[in-house]
Specification:
Strand content: 35-45%
CATH class: Mainly Beta
Structural class: alpha+beta
CATH architecture: Roll
Largest sheet: 5 strands, antiparallel
Radius of gyration: 17 Å
Number of domains: 1
Shape: elongated
Helix content: 10-25%
Strand order of the largest sheet: 4-3-2-1-5
């Protein structure tokens, strides 16, 4: 596989930056980008894993809601997972989490998708 220098430079510019990675099982991982490989596996450090509320939690919240329109608000659950490998085959979206104190230019634009 031929990789251009521009692509390599872009990946290098992401090292040490915070990424949000969405997966096929509806989880989201937020952590510091350490490396990737040819199979698009991504290693993140200091990672938080976020999950959507379970169906039973949504049902319980709807039953206890006094709101006529059935609009409810539930938070995602999270846990610290530390150093994690996210398999490339399960990644659906990768986002760069911008730090307002450190804005860098990138080929994909500020906050642009990586994949």
């Amino acid at each position: 596989m031929d990789t251009s220098r521009e692509e390599v430079r872009y990946l290098q510019s992401l090292l040490g930056r915070t990424l949000r990675i969405h997966t096929t099982d509806m989880r989201m991982f937020v952590g510091i980008f350490k490396c990737t490989d040819m199979d698009r596996n991504v290693i993140l450090a200091n990672t938080q894993e976020y999950r959507y509320p379970s169906e039973s939690a949504v049902r319980a919240a709807m039953q206890s809601s006094t709101n006529q329109s059935r609009d409810i608000k539930l938070d995602m659950t999270s846990r610290l997972v530390g150093l994690v490998v996210v398999p490339g085959e399960h990644i659906t979206k990768i986002e760069l989490e911008e730090n307002p104190y450190e804005v860098r230019s990138s080929p994909a634009g500020a906050g642009g998708l990586i994949i």
